[in-house]
Amino acid sequence: MTSMLSRAIRSLPATSTWAVRFSARSFSCSPLSHAAVQPKSKKTLAKNGVKNIVVVDGVRIPFLQSGTSYADLMPHDLARASLQGLLNRTNVPKEVVDYIVYGTVIQEVKTSNVAREAALGAGFSDKTPAHTVTMACISSNQAMTTGVGLIASGQCDVVVAGGVELMSDVPIRHSRKMRKTLLSLNRAKTLGQRLALFAKIRPDYFAPELPAVAEFSTSETMGHSADRLAAAFAISRVEQDEYALRSHTLARKAQDEGLLTDVVPFKVPGKDMVIKDNGVRPSSMEQMGKLKAAFVKPYGTVTAANSSFLTDGASAVLIMSEEKALAMGYKPKAYLRDFVYVSQDPKDQLLLGPTYGTPKVLERAGLTLADIDVFEFHEAFAGQILANLKAMDSDWFAQNYMGRKSKVGAPPLEKFNKWGGSLSLGHPFGATGCRLVMTAAHRLKKEGGQYGVVAACAAGGQGHAMIVELYPQ
Prior knowledge:
alpha+beta, ten-stranded mixed sheet, two-stranded antiparallel sheet, 16 helices, 12 strands
């Protein structure tokens, strides 16, 4: 089915199509244009009558490719490890924590409220409430902003927010016919009734229902959407491979230089200590070019090399009111400032959340793109990132799809995902948001910046963007 965006491209005059204007700039040769650099504002984003909310610190256990060292664990084991890592890092007394919120996507049915099970396992009091949220790839973003809301409203002073995903062991269900039969068996009172139900079972009843990373509303996998989006914005296979190679190269550099300080070791029971992400694998353009299309075959441009991989992992951050943090003697890492959630068409604009969210959050904060020192965007696919950068840099897209007079501009690459991203570090669906926030905070300190923008797309055509402000040093 021809997409809305593709039809829009063809409907433009030949001299001004997206394909012509966007493909004229090779990712490898010419940097994307962006807003002119203006004198940076040094104002704080504190607001009268509004509590300052800070992230004291945050950790994550190493993000691992699914099917590796975490394969025999359960989601609450990973979440518990991230909670214990946070307790060790911050020395926060468990009794001080008012509330715990975790995000996850593919839920283990035995621990549907994984936040509660992880909290109990980590030694928190059974009097500490905990709940789990799900919002696809921005689930831990939602966990963090839920914590912000609890503190801002005066309900809490100290919240732990996090996220977890274990793609090594996802629930696989019986077919619906078999489930109905098994439930009826529970209600059958006589042997005859049971035998009659068994007699109805057919071979197709045994076909399992496998989970899929697909949109319920469109039945289309996210990879297909990414391929169509890349085609709509005339993003070549070479550009996508170049961006993916950039992500892996920067991530390896960050690992080697000890910059990923949010990672805490995790001793997997019966196995060695895990100390770093295992999906960081810089390759070469030649090797990446040999891979076949992963979704739209045989001519698609999205491959295993330029896509994020199935990942296991967990993360956690300690959020407090500034007043509480200072009273406890903490030096926070950053303020959590304005944030927005956005939503658009899940068919044609599934992965454009950062494009819609970034200008809105900048306007809420009274900032421009030039004020931002650090950008940390979730990398679902290389094509998705490049499509967002091109959409953000397009007056035409802003006017025709966003109801804006002009573009917000594309983040300059020298400020963008400089320590790697989800393509290389991994993407445990429910845990990535906390990684983005902590990376932004650490980069701001390392690079001497003041403001960071965290943004991500998510299934359902949704997205999130947040302003992170470095805490005064």
